[in-house]
């Protein structure tokens, strides 16, 4: 069993023309999507971590904007408890912009199970398996315009 750990993760909310850019994965159930980003390294500022992770996962350069959403992910409380119950991750989700034109692609160092990236229409996000599951309803009308929203321990 792995030791208990607390991990800080940064995620990019990239919306353009009523579409959101998500990393695409495949598992035994099928396709699923999540915000691109990942773990912060010791001594690495949050914006630098987010730029690095997005280059690694989806091969894109970003302008990092304001902090929009925060969530706890305490794995033992959710559907993946059998595989990663040791994990407690705090995710900081920033509004970001892609520099220039961008066609979805896989980055230089994709995550395990990652097969690419995709622009998905905000209105149709409920048609896909997206994590965290609250994102489709939360972002249907775009990114919250004021303040930081704490989502709690959600999957």
Provide a short characterization of the protein structure:
The protein is mainly beta. The protein contains 3 helices and 9 strands; from the N terminus they run E-E-E-E-H-E-H-E-E-E-H-E.
Describe the protein in words:
By secondary structure, the chain is mainly beta. It has one domain: Nucleoside Triphosphate Pyrophosphohydrolase, CATH 3.90.79. Strands 1, 2, 3, 4, 5, 6, 7, 8 and 9 form a nine-stranded mixed beta sheet that branches.
Topology diagram in text:
Blueprint: E1 5-16, E2 19-26, E3 31-34, E4 37-39, H1 46-58, E5 62-74, H2 81-84, E6 87-98, E7 114-121, E8 130-131, H3 135-139, E9 149-153
Parallel strand pairs: 1-6, 3-8, 5-9
Antiparallel strand pairs: 1-2, 1-4, 2-3, 2-7, 5-6
Task: Report the strand count.
Answer: 9
Q: Give the full name of the CATH homologous superfamily.
A: Nucleoside Triphosphate Pyrophosphohydrolase
> SSE order in H/E notation?
EEEEHEHEEEHE
Estimate the helix proportion, in percent: 10-25%
Number of helices: 3
Classification by helices and strands = mainly beta
What are its keywords?
14% helix, 9-stranded mixed β-sheet, globular, Nucleoside Triphosphate Pyrophosphohydrolase, 3 helices, 155 residues, mainly beta, single chain
